[in-house]
Amino acid sequence: MDIKQIEQPGQIRQSAFNRITKDKDFKQVFDRKLSEINKVALPTLSDHETDVIDHSDKVLNLLDDYANKLNNPLKTLKEIEPVVYSIENEMNLVESKAADIVPKNGEIEQFVRALSVTAHVAVMKFQRGDYV
Question: Which of 43, 46, 130, 57 is nearest to 87 (CA)?
Fold first, then answer.
């Protein structure tokens, strides 16, 4: 074993560096593979599906805001009430927009059902007075 060929950690041989920077083939292959992956991995969504996802995101944000306000001892139930009504209204929009999509897309159906259960349970608990 020739110890003169062992390099210090972190040191790059100049010839290897020159070969990497001059080699354009790697970048071309990488870019081509990346574009192929993006075409396969990212399904195209219809406008209705995008609307459902956007409104679902709003519901999730409202539920997060609702949970934060419930955990804040300085917030009264009267101050939290508008968020609850917003959750209910936004969830109704999601369900109405998803009605056309659900039979065609099982993943969206599962997501909308889980979100609907979560949102409706949160609204019912608030209206029932669980947090008084």
Answer: 57
> What length does the chain have?
132
Q: Which of 65, 132, 121, 58 is nearest to 90 (CA)?
A: 58
Give phi and psi for 7, each to the nearest 5: -100, 160
The CA-atom distances, in angstroms, between 47 and each of 42, 59, 86, 93 are 15, 18, 23, 15
> Does residue 109 surpass a pLDDT of 90?
no
Residue 79: closest CA among 65, 69, 68, 90: 69
Q: Which residue has the tokens 């593979």?
A: 33
pTM of the model: 0.64
Neighbours of 81 (CB within 10 A): 12
